[in-house]
Structure formats: structure tokens, C-alpha cells
Automatic annotation (TrEMBL):
Record's protein name: Uncharacterized protein
TM stretches of this protein: 12-34, 46-65, 72-89, 115-140
Taxonomic classification: Bacteria, Pseudomonadati, Pseudomonadota, Betaproteobacteria, Burkholderiales
Domain of life: Bacteria
Alphabetical UniProt keywords: Membrane, Transmembrane, Transmembrane helix
Protein's organism: Noviherbaspirillum aridicola
Amino acid sequence: MKANTPTRADGIAALLIVLYILLLAAIPALRPVAEVKALFSEEGPFEMLSIVSWIVAAVVMLAAFREEKRGALLFGLLFVLFAAREADWHKKFTADSLLKSNYYRHTEAPLMEKLLAFAVALAFIALVLYVGFVIARFLLARGGWRTRGGLWLLAGTALVVLGKLLDRAPAELALAGHALSESVGLYAGVFEEGLEMIHPLILAWSLWLCRGLPLFGRAGFSRR
């Protein structure tokens, strides 16, 4: 079997994603605006489910790569940190978000707090860079893009980029003098939060498919 040959499981997963996206598109048309905003707010159920999704991704990563303990633990740690970020822990113990430069430049806070926060932020960024490097090396240098797991990794990455664009677009367009209508802004928020919730699950699925492949090690491909 070729490394990129889709299976029935891939078809089912793709169908579920399409149905989920259609559901997201239907919610603003079927429910009152206030209810939709509550569902997809920063304290709403989709935001809470994003936390669960990242924890699931961490567990799957540790299960799929039990023999690659160091790499799996670092991936799992990053996923747990993403869950913590969804729970707003990046600003729970500081005067503002420790991931924003404004906190260090303009927020009034004790110097020791800022130093500790900066150390945590640097560790987080280092983890992101490490995971990004491992995934890019697997996809590009080791031919991972030809495998089922690699293709799902690419699909998940595309959804992340789309989600970030939907997150930033309304504010950036407003600054440029092109404010979105309420309905367009509502749909953008629904898809941003909705895709944010499902992305860790797609990532978990892709990493599970990558078990036995040279994500960390140098072993040859086992056609998955």
C-alpha cells in the first residue's frame, strides 16, 4: 500500500469534519444572536471543549510515541500548555498576558513577576519552536508529507492558519477602516472558536497515524 493511500478511516474522519463545519455554518442561522455569542465566547462551551481537546491530544501523543519518551513528553507538555492558555492561565498569575509584549513594556507589575513571566514565556516559545522544527523536518526532510499522518498534519496546520486569520481579521480590518458587519463578524467568531476546538483532535489523529514513522528517530517509513 502506498504511504499516502487513503483508507476508510480517513474517509470517515474527513466526513465528520465536513459535517462539523456545516454544523458551525448552520448555528448562526438557526439560533438567536445572543445565544450564538454565548456559545462561542471566551467562557463558552466551545472554549471549554478546546481545553479538553488539547488534553486528549497530549494523551494520544504519549500513547503513540511511548518509545520516544523525551520527544513525546515535550510535545505533550506543549499541548498541556496550550490547554492552559485556552483556560487563560497565561494571565491568571500576572497583571496581563505574559505572552504579550505590552505586559513587559507598559503594565505596572513587580520586576520579579515580569522576570519569572519572561522565563516562562521563553520556555513556551522554545517548546513551540522545537515542535515546529520536528514537524517541519518530518514533513519536508523525511518525506512525511507523502504519508497519511503527514497529510493530516498539513490539513490541521491549514486549519490553524485559517483560524488565526479569522481571529485577527475583524480587528485588523477595523483598524484599516473596514469594519465587518455584525453577521459577518458573528460567523468569523463561530468558525474561529469552532475550528480552534477541533484542531487538537485532528492533530491527535495525525500523530496517531504517524506512530512508527520517523517523527523523532531515523527509522525508515512503515507505510502508514
